[in-house]
Amino acid sequence: MRFVDIIEKKRDGHALTKEEIAFFIEGYTNGEIPDYQASALLMAIYFEDMTDEERANLTMAMVASGDQINLAAIDGIKVDKHSTGGVGDTTTLPLAAMVAAVGVPVAKMSGRGLGHTGGTIDKLEAIEGFHVELSTEDFTKQVNEIKMAVIGQSGNLTPADKKIYALRDVTGTVSSIPLIASSIMSKKIASGADAIVLDVKTGDGAFMKTVEDAERLAHAMVKIGNSVGRNTMAIISDMSQPLGFAIGNALEIKEAVETLQGKGPADLQELCYVLGSQMVVLGGHAKTLAEARTQLEAVVADGSALEVLRAFITAQGGNAAVVDDLTLLPQAKFVTELAAKTSGYVAKLEADDIGTAAMLLGAGRATKESEIDLAVGLVLNKKVGDYVNAGESLVTIYANREDITDVEQKLYDHIILSGETVAAPKLIHSIITE
């Protein structure tokens, strides 16, 4: 088999066979196929797309390129959740604790963040003593006992995806639906989940800016998952403004705890219930979404979801007292209120730029080598549609440097007020199951 023939075949709009795709993935991963030839195929895929069968074969070839996690020793149907990312996306912790409290095992592998704020792993490290490294035996034992564990991703999970992603980044092929879908789904499938719930974001702070593009990606991923034996569904949720109020690692842990106390932001709480209901149904603990939601609301109301969070923190070496005393989280030296210059309705909270403002404080990484400051970040005091009086606080800024003029200006530039009433954006745009 000659790789140039595979490039020409895709260039001319023909579907590649399972064997041809496997030849590409294996050859590129082990260094036999050079970057320039791989780049040519990626560009051909970008322009010519892939069939559903090709997408599934590409995904499984990437899964086979590295380690695959076997969760068979964990009782029950293991359900994973994946978000395509956004600003203030704090769902993993409260959601996992709620779902675990209902009895569905959540065995989660998460990554570190690159961009606005840290990933779930970074956020968890805001809790004193918490560690994300567990042996396979301890990971399995913990999920069987308390139904929840979150660890760092395996170093050799889908190495083909890591190489291809780096190449896509420098060849203008990042925004290709089959390449995005296979990248995400290969990691989820290699992580061993039986069922997968996808939270596909759309709007200013999301990779997919329009609902139509988000739905195209969601359909692609759901088809891949279902075609390879993983029960998969997706929710299209809004990221035109940050989710919840908090943007920053310790601040988001605080918000997660408050959500499990039933005192979280309305949009974050609702998204957890919507995603969680799907997870509970897929996990076999409810027949209908309404029944699942009732169970989730009950474990928040009676405190059992919060108890799961305490047990989870303790099991992974963290100080669970933080659940009852949020001042034990890292604290910023300077707290400043960003006052509205005029009165009006909040028309836009431009998520991407507000996330960048948090990163300027040190809440996120500009590069992989950047150090995160776990204490800093932003807390929104108004959301889109709210009225604000001149002089009233729009955002509370938590900083470890005194001069935050650059952050304040960034926020003023991207929080837009209007004299006209503005409707709050729709949180859930659609649900995709096939």
From TrEMBL:
<dbReference type="InterPro" id="IPR018090">
    <property type="entry name" value="Pyrmidine_PPas_bac/euk"/>
</dbReference>
<comment type="subunit">
    <text>Homodimer.</text>
</comment>
<dbReference type="InterPro" id="IPR017459">
    <property type="entry name" value="Glycosyl_Trfase_fam3_N_dom"/>
</dbReference>
<keyword id="KW-0328">Glycosyltransferase</keyword>
<comment type="function">
    <text>Catalyzes phosphorolysis of the pyrimidine nucleosides uridine, thymidine and 2'-deoxyuridine with the formation of the corresponding pyrimidine base and ribose-1-phosphate.</text>
</comment>
<dbReference type="GO" id="GO:0004645">
    <property type="term" value="F:1,4-alpha-oligoglucan phosphorylase activity"/>
</dbReference>
<keyword id="KW-0808">Transferase</keyword>
<keyword id="KW-0630">Potassium</keyword>
<comment type="similarity">
    <text>Belongs to the thymidine/pyrimidine-nucleoside phosphorylase family.</text>
</comment>
<dbReference type="InterPro" id="IPR000312">
    <property type="entry name" value="Glycosyl_Trfase_fam3"/>
</dbReference>
<keyword id="KW-0479">Metal-binding</keyword>
<dbReference type="GO" id="GO:0046872">
    <property type="term" value="F:metal ion binding"/>
</dbReference>
<dbReference type="GO" id="GO:0005829">
    <property type="term" value="C:cytosol"/>
</dbReference>
<dbReference type="GO" id="GO:0006213">
    <property type="term" value="P:pyrimidine nucleoside metabolic process"/>
</dbReference>
<dbReference type="InterPro" id="IPR036320">
    <property type="entry name" value="Glycosyl_Trfase_fam3_N_dom_sf"/>
</dbReference>
<dbReference type="InterPro" id="IPR000053">
    <property type="entry name" value="Thymidine/pyrmidine_PPase"/>
</dbReference>
<dbReference type="Pfam" id="PF07831">
    <property type="entry name" value="PYNP_C"/>
</dbReference>
<feature type="domain" description="Pyrimidine nucleoside phosphorylase C-terminal">
    <location>
        <begin position="345"/>
        <end position="418"/>
    </location>
</feature>
<dbReference type="Pfam" id="PF02885">
    <property type="entry name" value="Glycos_trans_3N"/>
</dbReference>
<dbReference type="InterPro" id="IPR036566">
    <property type="entry name" value="PYNP-like_C_sf"/>
</dbReference>
<dbReference type="Pfam" id="PF00591">
    <property type="entry name" value="Glycos_transf_3"/>
</dbReference>
<dbReference type="InterPro" id="IPR035902">
    <property type="entry name" value="Nuc_phospho_transferase"/>
</dbReference>
<dbReference type="GO" id="GO:0009032">
    <property type="term" value="F:thymidine phosphorylase activity"/>
</dbReference>
<protein>
    <recommendedName>
        <fullName>Pyrimidine-nucleoside phosphorylase</fullName>
        <ecNumber>2.4.2.2</ecNumber>
    </recommendedName>
</protein>
<dbReference type="InterPro" id="IPR013102">
    <property type="entry name" value="PYNP_C"/>
</dbReference>
<dbReference type="GO" id="GO:0006206">
    <property type="term" value="P:pyrimidine nucleobase metabolic process"/>
</dbReference>
<dbReference type="InterPro" id="IPR017872">
    <property type="entry name" value="Pyrmidine_PPase_CS"/>
</dbReference>
